[in-house]
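user: Here is a favour to ask of a fellow structure person. I have my own habits and do not want them to colour yours. Could you put it straight underneath, so I can go through it closely?

assistant:
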Amino acid sequence: MKRLTRILIMTFAAVALVPPLQSSAAPTSQPLTLAQAFAEHAVKIRASATTATAADCYAATITSQANGHLTSAELGYDPSDYRYGMLRARATSEGPWEEFFVCFNGSQSTIQSLDTGMYVSAELGYDTSDSRWGMLRARASSAGPWEQYSFATSCNGNCLVIRSTANNRLVSAELGYGTSDWRYEMLRARATSEGPWEEFN
């Protein structure tokens, strides 16, 4: 039984640590910021005079420009809890929950938790009046329409905006709730225009 458990753990780890859109360069021990990763990607595109490819991937952190906090994938909840894997701009230091694997591919770009290998989904199955509609969660084992994004520069090139391809909404860091509210600092694909809450680096 112990041997079987060990095999299952090893198998799960192998699956989780090999993202389907793995780049030729393995994630580094020191992730770039999202803006740095996108800038490197842009340099590659200009140098090769080609369009973006799904193989152009980077280990990166995602920081809210509005509050200066790193984005975490909230993995401390039970997997059956709708908050499990929720992205929140709430960390003041970097750990495994704050590291992501971003693959640039135009409007089909993807974001994965480096800790679990799960793709980040924009949760569009809720009613639009539900505060969970559009919330970002690292919970998908494969990339479908809800797991696709595009990136564009802002802040005079010093930050990025993230747009969900599925609903064409910008990702916001929800800073309008009280600090004790579970929704505070949650990332949601719900904005139709850009402001400080929609800017990341």
In short: The CA atoms of residues 24 and 74 lie 28 Å apart. The chain has one domain: 2-198. Residues 2-16 form the longest helix (15 residues).
